[in-house]
Amino acid sequence: MKVVLKSALVVAMALSVGGVALAADKKPAMPAWKMQGDELEIAMSLKGDAKEGRDIYEVCAACHLPEGWGLSDGTFPQLAGQHHNVLVKQLADIRAQNRDNPTMYPFALPSQIGGPQAVADVVEYIATLPMTPENGVGPGTDLALGEQLYKDNCVRCHGANGEGNNEKYFPRIHGQHFEYIKRQFREIRDGKRRNANPDMVKQVKGFSDRDLEAVSDYTSRIKPPADRLGPPGWQNPDFQ
Ligand code: HEC
Ligand code: HEC
To answer: What atom in ligand 1 is closest to the CA of residue 193?
Structure first.
């Protein structure tokens, strides 16, 4: 609300200063945590078809790998194991440019993969994939600090073991690659991930770079439940 008011004010001021041309493609500075238009709602209401999803996932596999395990250097996140609602929301956000992802954006557009049904389908397919047992982890040098920070600041939303919460769109963060966790955390802390939950931003705003590194390292080392993990070196037979 505040942000909207402020931006309206800026516009009014700009106009009063004397016809400063506003870039027509400037996105409004709206609170963006849940602003992906109708697609989230529609895709959430649709039943996904994993078979259709497999064909769509072929596009995604180029970066997220056929297994959905991403890269341990964090360039591409692991998608396997992520909550249904989180995947739908993040995809819808990326497609609506409510979360910047220039690398992926052109491949994830409706013109490339289809509308909300495609989102539901591909997410249904991703749900069939086990998680990597060998995600990228940090240096392991500051774990006591990381654990304390996690307990004090993250459990409330991401759970005692980093399991997240499907209903509340809180991502599962355990078993994710360290470098990806770190990058997202930094972007959220610094206000660069526009779709970030404002309560998380508030919670982590005072984190130093050391804090950020330590808590990301600790999080990357929390093991997901054993029954969610695939065997080391597993290859997805759907893409053999
Ligand atoms: C050209 C590479 C590329 C392709 C193709 C691609 N992605 Fe991505 N994707 C990325 C990158 C890079 C990120 C992380 C961006 C960042 O760091 O913010 C990402 C992030 C995501 C996220 C957010 C994950 C999270 O934990 O929040 C989801 C969901 C996702 N991709 C799903 C998909 C799906 C589904 C497809 C296929 C339709 C796909 N991606 C195709 C590169 C790609
Ligand atoms: C008030 C709830 C809340 C708190 C507290 C919180 N988070 Fe989050 N976090 C979220 C939500 C919600 C998202 C997803 C936002 C979105 O939809 O873009 C998120 C996203 C993330 C992501 C990106 C995940 C991905 O797959 O892209 C990371 C990493 C993360 N949080 C780590 C942490 C850590 C570490 C802490 C503690 C220091 C923490 N968060 C505290 C709610 C919270």
So the answer is: 18
Instruction: Please check whether residues 197 and 178 belong to one and the same domain.
Output: yes
Tokens of 202: 């508030």
Which of 104, 121, 125, 126 should be mutated for ligand 1, with most atoms under 8 A from CB?
Answer: 104
Q: What is the pLDDT of residues 34-84, one digit of tens each?
A: 655 688 989 999 999 999 999 999 999 999 999 999 999 999 999 999 999
| Full domain range(s) for residue 173 | 143-228
Residue 113 placed within a domain: yes
Full-model pTM: 0.89
In sequence order, the β-bridge partners of residue 131 are 229
Number of domains in the chain: 3
User: Are 120 and 169 part of one and the same domain?
Assistant: no
